[in-house]
Design a protein that fits this description.
Blueprint (H helix, E strand, L loop, with lengths): L1 E7 L2 H4 L6 H16 L3 E6 L7 E6 L2 E6 L9 E8 L3 H8 L10 E5 L12 H14 L1
Antiparallel strand pairs: 1-5, 1-6, 2-5, 3-4
Length: 136
């Protein structure tokens, strides 16, 4: 099972302030252990929303909206993509993440082809598998 772990933005992350060495070192050790244990597939921090854009699609029209975006608590500052046997396993792992300044993370399971059952025709399953193997 694959999951995305979203690190919610803070006023500090939205200001563009980069983490200090005191923050980066324990995070590096945490990530290194996730990799050694075969859990971590990807992970990165994101630039603040002031450097981003949103695309809104409505009735065949696309609107481009430049950042920054309001409601910092709704924004994402970073992410991991991880794999494990269960949501409980991932939750347990991330209860030990090196956060202690009020950070919030959200863990969400990623959809797999099997989740769609008969709604996903075999040719689309094959396409999904082919695309995944090409993107790694």
């Amino acid at each position: 099972m694959r999951f995305v772990v979203l690190v919610k933005a803070t006023t500090e992350s939205e200001s563009g302030a980069l983490p200090t060495r005191e923050i980066l070192e324990p995070m590096g050790k945490f990530n290194e252990q996730l990799i050694k244990d075969g859990i971590m597939l990807a992970g990165d921090g994101l630039h603040p929303s002031s450097k981003g854009v949103r695309l809104r699609f409505d009735g065949g029209r696309t609107t481009v909206i430049d950042g920054p975006f309001a409601e910092t608590k709704e924004l994402v500052a970073g992410f991991w993509i991880v794999q494990g046997k269960s949501k409980e396993e991932i939750v347990e792992r991330f209860t030990h993440a090196p956060f202690d300044r009020g950070e919030v993370i959200e863990i969400r399971q990623l959809h797999e082809a099997e989740d769609f059952g008969d709604e996903l025709p075999s040719e689309m399953r094959d396409q999904e598998q082919r695309l995944r193997s090409q993107s790694r």
